Amino acid sequence: MEQNIDHLLKVASELTITIKQVEATSTLLDEGATVPFISRYRKEVTGSLDEVQIAAIRDRMEQLRELDKRRESILKSIRDQEKLTPELEARIMAAETMAALEDIYLPYKPKRRTRATIAREKGLEPLAERIFQQENFDVTAEAANYISEEKEVKDEAEALAGARDIMAEWMNENAEARAAMRQLFEKKGVFKSRVMMGKEEEGQKFKDYFEWDEAIEKAPSHRILAMRRGESEMVLMLSAQPEEEAALAKLEDMFVKGNNAAAEQVRLAAKDSYKRLLKLSMETEVRLSSKKRADEEAIRVFADNLRQLLLSSPLGQKTVLALDPGFRTGCKLVVLDKQGKLLHNETVYPHTGQHKAQEAGQNVKYLVDKFNVEALAIGNGTASRETETFVNNLNLPKTVQVVMVNESGASIYSASDVAREEFPDQDVTVRGAVSIGRRLMDPLAELVKIDPKSIGVGQYQHDVDQSALKHTLDDVVMSCVNAVGVEVNTASKQLLTYVSGLGPALAQNIVEYRNQNGPFRTRTELKKVARLGDKAFEQAAGFLRIRDAKNPLDASAVHPESYPIVEQMAKDLGVTVQDLIKNDELRKKIELKKYVTDTVGLPTLKDIVSELAKPGRDPRETFEAFSFTEGVNEMRDLRTGMKLPGIVTNITAFGAFVDIGVHQDGLVHVSHLSDRFISNPHDAVKVGQKVEVTVLEVDENRKRISLSMKSDPAAAKPAGGGGARKGDARKEKEAEPMNDFQAKLAQLKGRFK
């Protein structure tokens, strides 16, 4: 695709990079290259841009191209009306935003029959034009000239009313007026939220918004989304406007030019234009723009959380016994081999009487011994702490790690088409337990099978633009999968789907080829897969690993296109490629400048040598065991001042949720995340991080726990209660409107902008 020089210049300026970088990146994207591929293997072409910059170029170029499509459509429409002048065309071509473009087009846009249309049909436009000039003349006498029984203008008042309708529409369709009014709404507008009559009890979770005013410009994402949710649930009435007097004054300043009878008619028209036309239009726009801003922030928070969760430390390839806990219905137990294959399943009943508990204990000990189990995974839902206690009392070998696993979304997976395809002969309980065990072994490989919105690390994810959310989350998943790399001979279809250049169809074809022909022996063999052509191979090969391949580079992130370079390096030193990988001293002897060409520069060469030092090594952190405080299993066990270990499960704009092992996540308010000032919670913690917290407050009735990570929690205690409701651990944990923190948040709202 031919690049638009204006687009390139604009994007380069906005991102503070060179036009050459934008052009090269945009060309690669248009040719079908993926963001991970460009970032990892085309550094010389892009000037070493990272994934964030490349994705920003992609998204901004798409926006500008959409703007151009709309521009062409508008030009065609006005041209067909035979109203396109050189001046108008120049204004349309100069418009830089969709809003500015639509403002210019508004007077020419086909519209339904309006009050102004009816007035024109009555022949009142010349009267409107005369009045709009605001010269000093007898307005009533002039209006009398337009009285007509035939045109249904019965008196002067009706003639003047029609003229005002026409002038009101002119003001509404004036691009400069709309731009000024839009700015007023954005800069001086206020959200006013009020409870609907009779909804006080039903809408208690929105209590803080029953009588709430807040500047639109400063309102944080979570409060905008909370108010809008309250409105959609018919609990709140919400408006988004500036003070009416300020808006009317702005409009009058633009259009009222005198102090006579004609000017008074223009003033009345301005008032009508604002109240009947502009106010509704501008409020709609500012609600949409503030929603978009709120969506972007919520999606960013979700994306950051998801990235951290997907890149959680894997236990690795170990034989795992997984338990999905339950009381009356028992605990579903599965045993998985080192590759995650289901070896055994049954149900044990450790919580339904002493006899059943002994029997369950004997079964678990027998299975641990029989299958040489190396780790035991326990889902963190109902009966999890009781099951953990049961397991810890079995005196299993000390080599067997007992780990609590976050099971959010496991039930979603167990009932999905993916799970049915994997385990057609097993019920949902077995599939859920398998998911828990596999999450411990490799969180990334298992979580890609679940819709990210069901994983439980979002903030109002069902309220934001779903298309934008999916687009961003897909980017995150693809980035994580390709950063870690994928073992092609063991990866699931779902994991392969996210590999650069593949997608669902090619992923399925790879699995089918593998099933029919056995494991891949070389990367080159991938070209034998149906429909996997040269382009797909180029995009995918560097991210696919083949363990124990004949060519050691096939297990690394070195791209096949660079194999000749590595082979030449080895040849020049008189050694093998395997020698280069094993021997650090040999790698130090490589003179990189010798291998620079027109297409391969130092960035790629440095990446190659770095990869030779750790071929195929997992970039994720090493797994560390974690355990909750013994004896603290329920909210009633908590006491103010207790210091407890916990795991961060979700991060929002107002703080972080921490699992402390009592079936209810507590909230560490942003003011309690650190001894130093923190405006962005992601600067203090990450999802999956092990932390120590102090209990500030416990409200069992409302299921709220307030926590602190400060060294001196009393130094900045939030005003009132604790966290949001968690609900079933398998359901998403999504932050509800914060009932007790809003007073504090109002004082600190600048922190959340």
UniProtKB/TrEMBL annotation:
Highest rank taxon of the organism: Bacteria
GO molecular function (one): mRNA binding
Region (Disordered): 706-740
GO CC annotation: cytoplasm
One annotated GO biological process: nucleobase-containing compound metabolic process
Domain S1 motif, residue spans: 641-710
Protein name: RNA-binding transcriptional accessory protein
